[in-house]
Amino acid sequence: MNLMMLLEMAATALGDRVAVGSSDAAVTCSDLMGRAAGLAGRLRASGAERLVLCDEPGAVLPVALFGAAWAGAAYVPVNYRLPDDDLRALAERAAPALAVTDDAGARRLAGVEGLEVVERDTLLEDPSGGAEAAGPGDWPSDPDAAAVLLYTSGTSGPPKAAVLRHRHLVSYVFGTVEFASAGPGEAHIMAVPPYHVASVAAQLSQVYSGRRIVPLARFDPDAWIDEVRDEGVTHAMLVPTMLARIVDALDRRGETLETVRFVSYGGGKSHRAVVERALEVFPAAGFSHAYGLTETSSTVCVMGPDDHRRCAASDDPVERARLSSAGRPLPGVEVSVRSADGVEAQTGSAGEIWVRGEQVAGEYAEGGSQLDEDGWFCTRDSGHLDEDGYLWVHGRNDDIIIRGGENMSPGEIEDALLTHPAVADAAAFGVPSREWGEEVAVCVVTRTPAPSADDLRELVRARLRSSRVPARVEFVDELPYNDTGKLLRRELRGRYASDPVPRR
Amino acid sequence: MVELRPGARFQSTVCATEVIVVKGTGTAELSCGGAPMVPAGSAERAGEPSADASGGTLLGKRYGDGDETVEVLCTKAGEGSLALAGVALAVKVTKPLPASD
User: Fold this and answer.
1) Where are the domains of chain A?
2) Are A204 and A8 in contact (CB under 8 A)?
3) A55 CA to chain B: closest CA distance, Å?
4) Which fold has domain A1-159?
5) Touching check for B1 and chain A: CB below 8 Å?
6) Rounded distance, CA A442 to CA A489, Å?
7) Of A174, A177, A306, which is closest to B20 when you measure between CB atoms?
8) Residue B92 has pLDDT above 80, yes or no
9) Residues 6+ apart with CB under 8 A from A103
């Protein structure tokens, strides 16, 4: 089993279909196959065991991903925003390797031992670099070979390399995508950074379904909107911070986007107010909310377009609230919520989220497999399953606030704050308290006219209960996010931990 | 007889068909073109599909048995048709999945 099976199928049935590119610079499925063969030949000739991709989203991504798979080398996308020393350290760990990057990246990566560097534009023009291209179908078939190494975003601790093997990713695609199901005019805008698992999943899914990938090099909400219009984009995947910024920009421009028929969002907590607004500015789109991790080959639970429509239109508060849930497990994926001692939680009770399935890798280059003996992987997210099997993700386990023995989900408090029209963004986190162990603290970004701290306390008291009322309310200009859009509550906790909480 | 497990790949011996198992485990009599299928890459093609099993396979389609215990996906198309223990496998009409990326 090899990722190349997916491209080979697409090239066989949809050879002339555009795989990636804007309408004036397109690479068809057949072209992609040819370039991957060239790159595979080059990798084999050089003895590279990994391909380091240090670049923004672009046409080179699928060439690199499939070319590496063909050669039996792992594809290792790294964050081009890393400081030089960190970037070079990751490249050193990947050696012997071929790095694909832009001219600035080439300068930054020059001289790393065991690393050959090639500029992206050169590679696209001449993938083999004079080497003999790989032969038809001669990719390795070991399903257990590492296909992709992804440095996890590290909201806690130093980055670790998650290992995704060919069988995990191929299972994910076979389990979630119908072959050649895209219409000839469909296009997917790829704006998530290459080192995010969603980028890898999107490339595989789009190629296999026959949908053109339109890469957007540098995310900016206005550039995104313009590209969608220029290219007639029909499909999009966004992390919640991107979605929020696009919705704001569309509001500011007084525009809606009619060509978009499908929007998927995930990879962090999304705020209900943003989702409700998004339904309006993408009037023709079906929405999917995906929950997944790097270690699970992307999505494991999904709240699909039908769920969105039904819940958004419902008068039943239980149904309507489900807009904030992560939906139900994909076919072939099992989800279990367990207490800290491993006992399965009752419906509605919070615990740790565990997942199992063919696509669940749960392995790090540094620490080996984290699956238990029955194949279950602990996500370290906290959540609960409701009576209809919808999964609710409360947040990272480490972010759960424990006040006087009561576990509280920061997301629930943030959602309550965000119902205030003048609250633009909110983060809840725990700070040490002598009396309660932890107390609830919140940081909010407000618009004018800004509410007072007591207004916000009253809002939380009214919508939730008194134990959730923040002891500390801080007004800030912005909240800290990592560059894949994850809110860094840990950083806020650190910032305010040493300050005693004033008594209420 | 072959050993089914998700991810296992099999080839026809009488046409170009290859499949991958999406669902199903255990020993099974999987055939294509009237001849038993073998692990992918383990045999050369020899002979032709039998007349009663030459409906052909379609690339990327899922094939399943009536009681939904086994599902295979066609990764290479051929002239033979698939069967499990002598009973023809049918193209599965799948309900559209809520695409997530």
Assistant:
1) 1-159, 335-398, 400-496
2) no
3) 21
4) Rossmann fold (3.40.50)
5) no
6) 10
7) A174
8) yes
9) A119
Class of domain A335-398: mainly beta
The domain A400-496 having CATH identifier 3.30.10.20: the answer here is no
pLDDT of A274 higher than 90 = no
Confirm if A114 and A97 have CB atoms less than 8 A apart. Answer: yes
Structure-block tokens of residue A138: 């001669």
Inter-chain touch B101–A264, beta carbons under 8 Å:
yes
Q: Is B95 on the interface with A (CB under 8 A)?
A: no
**B93 exposure class (CB count in 10 Å sphere: 0-12, 13-18, 19+):** exposed
Question: Can you tell me whether residue A474 is helix, strand or coil?
Answer: strand
Tokens coding A55: 């670049």
**Residues A194 and A77 sit within 8 Å (Cβ to Cβ):** yes
Q: What is the pLDDT of residues A97-113, one digit of tens each?
A: 999 999 999 999 999 99
| Mean pLDDT lowest among A102-106, A145-149, A310-314 | A310-314
DSSP letter for each residue of A24-42: TEEEEHHHHHHHHHHHHHH
For an interface test with B, give the residue of A9, A168, A289 to mutate (most B CBs within 10 A). A9
* A176·B99 Cβ contact <8 A: yes
pLDDT tens across A377-386, in order?
Answer: 999 999 999 9
